[in-house]
């Protein structure tokens, strides 16, 4: 008879994700994870096989959380340009301060190196862009690919904020996105 798990894989992956964000992707080792979650290294190796699989499963678990958060937010915001701004500002809340954002870029590097994780990022981008585009459905003459344009502006605003994080991230992003929406809706209203 097998022993019951004292911690689910999801709990262990949450701990692993926290370690990655606190110490960088290279710091995720079975030894460090064993100390953090209280399981033996042998148990972790049995569950996750090797460091590469542990890292991939950890980041896939993180993508699952981002996908769920994005779906939930997309279902609750109004289908208006203001709702699109609210969706992206809410997604920005997870970045925290500059140190957390900088660590997140190291995690993004890991996503870009792995084709499975890159595919998850591409799928998330497609969903997010569609959700943002739906918020402009009632806008006269919205630009083609408005969802992608807005998502790209959002990602750019995160990067520009990181060089001079003098104000709180959400406030910076909200102001930037509101100016983007004003420019888009003004230009759209002028088109025949």
TrEMBL record:
Protein name, as recorded: TetR family transcriptional regulator
Highest taxon of source: Bacteria
Start and end residues of each HTH tetR-type domain: 6-66
Pfam families tied to this protein: TetR_N (PF00440)
DNA-binding region listed in the record: 29-48
UniProt key word tRNA-binding: no
Gene3D superfamilies for the chain: Tetracycline Repressor, domain 2
SUPFAM superfamilies found in the cross-reference section: Homeodomain-like
InterPro entries in UniProt: Homeodomain-like_sf (IPR009057), HTH-type_TetR-like_transc_reg (IPR050109), HTH_TetR (IPR001647)
MF annotations from Gene Ontology: DNA-binding transcription factor activity; transcription cis-regulatory region binding
Sorted UniProt keywords: DNA-binding, Transcription, Transcription regulation
Signal peptide positions (record): none
């Amino acid at each position: 008879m097998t022993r019951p798990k004292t911690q689910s894989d999801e709990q262990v992956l949450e701990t692993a994700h926290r370690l990655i964000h606190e110490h960088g992707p290279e710091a995720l080792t079975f030894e460090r994870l064993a100390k953090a979650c209280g399981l033996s290294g042998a148990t972790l190796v049995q569950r996750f096989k090797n460091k590469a699989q542990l890292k991939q499963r950890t980041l896939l678990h993180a993508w699952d959380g981002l996908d769920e958060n994005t779906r939930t937010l997309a279902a609750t915001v109004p289908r208006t340009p203001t709702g699109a701004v609210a969706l992206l500002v809410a997604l920005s809340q997870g970045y925290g301060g500059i140190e957390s954002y900088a660590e997140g870029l190291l995690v993004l590097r890991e996503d870009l190196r792995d084709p499975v994780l890159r595919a998850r990022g591409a799928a998330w981008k497609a969903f997010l862009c569609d959700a943002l585009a739906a918020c402009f459905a009632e806008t006269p003459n919205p630009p083609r690919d408005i969802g992608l344009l807005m998502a790209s502006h959002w990602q750019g605003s995160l990067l520009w904020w990181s060089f001079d994080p003098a104000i709180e991230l959400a406030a910076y992003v909200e102001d930037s996105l509101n100016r983007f929406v004003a420019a888009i809706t003004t230009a759209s209203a002028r088109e025949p």
